[in-house]
């Protein structure tokens, strides 16, 4: 039986337009939100006051993400900006600062991108001893059905035009149907394969790109080109599998933090679940399809997120409701009801076991004694779910743990 619906514990009303994207820092200290006018706001989870509010883009924000000491924003104005992240000072925590009082983050550099897709970027952080580096996947500058991978901060295009929707003979869909033109990319996720990622520090893991398309299909590709070798026209990438579960366009996709499972939602009532560990040999045997469709009673979904422990997922509906499901079985766990308009963004705080809390209270030089929070408070914050709606509000919900308890 589904759980009774709680009420949000906090409502953020800093935006004046529809909230289009959300992100929470891995230490659960900062909420990032963006709206359809291009306004970006950083909010402290301790004080629930804005740390920064600025016009990041001249059009709607597609994505916003914290990257170390920087912030990446991606807008419908065909621009991607990298900003310096503002630090939370004791003055901001204690003072009644208004949005107009806050300083604007400094822009570090920008890139021209193709935002026709409404498809946000995907970032992979490269572990290394030097300056922070990453790989950035975005739709191709010219053809919205293809993907590019750039290196940051150098802004060099490492792989160009990944994927060829006109190639119908390469690989059949995993459910037995032959390939067809997929349309533009609706969502993408760049990651290193959990299968091949070694426990040692040697860089021999396999880079993969998961793309969801306008025709409802999802395609997993892996890089076969040597590391740091530039490729063009989609060369150096190989299809692992294709799966087509939705009849309508994929509206949103989420990948688990361990990169083993992906979920998709659409205008239909289906939730697609994909096994990212299934290899091409298993799929071609047709005995192990990469994707499974789960039927729900609620069509029209535009946002999805998976909790960091992989157990629970949240789906934001066009009806404004957020529904919680088991990631494994897609059994409904509960429904969160507050927003009267469509929910366009959802995100989970990091589970407390996955938050780097060692020395947290001592290393934060801006913290005073009264700013310190208890481990129990961190556990509560680690169970937060954050939702953004076209009603311009951001709701914060404190969820139960959903852990199985013995009777």
Q: In percent, how helical is the residue content?
A: under 10%
Order of strands in the sheet with the most strands? Answer: 1-28-27-26
Rg (C-alpha, Å): 21 Å
- The total of beta strands comes to 28
Count of runs of 4 or more consecutive helical residues: 4
Q: Based on helices, strands and strand pairing, what is the structural class? A: mainly beta
Mean pLDDT: 85
Anisotropy-based shape: globular
End-to-end distance: 17 Å
Beta-strand content = 35-45%
Largest sheet data = 4 strands, antiparallel
Low-confidence stretches: 167-180, 196-203, 355-370
SSE blueprint:
Elements: E1 10-12, E2 19-24, E3 30-35, E4 39-44, E5 50-55, E6 61-67, E7 70-75, E8 79-84, H1 90-94, E9 107-112, E10 122-126, E11 133-139, E12 147-152, E13 156-162, E14 185-192, E15 207-213, E16 217-223, E17 237-244, E18 250-255, E19 261-266, E20 270-275, H2 280-284, E21 291-295, E22 301-306, E23 312-317, E24 322-326, E25 332-336, E26 343-348, H3 360-363, H4 375-381, E27 384-389, E28 394-398
Antiparallel strand pairs: 1-28, 2-3, 3-4, 4-5, 6-7, 7-8, 8-9, 10-11, 11-12, 12-13, 14-15, 15-16, 16-17, 18-19, 19-20, 20-21, 22-23, 23-24, 24-25, 26-27, 27-28
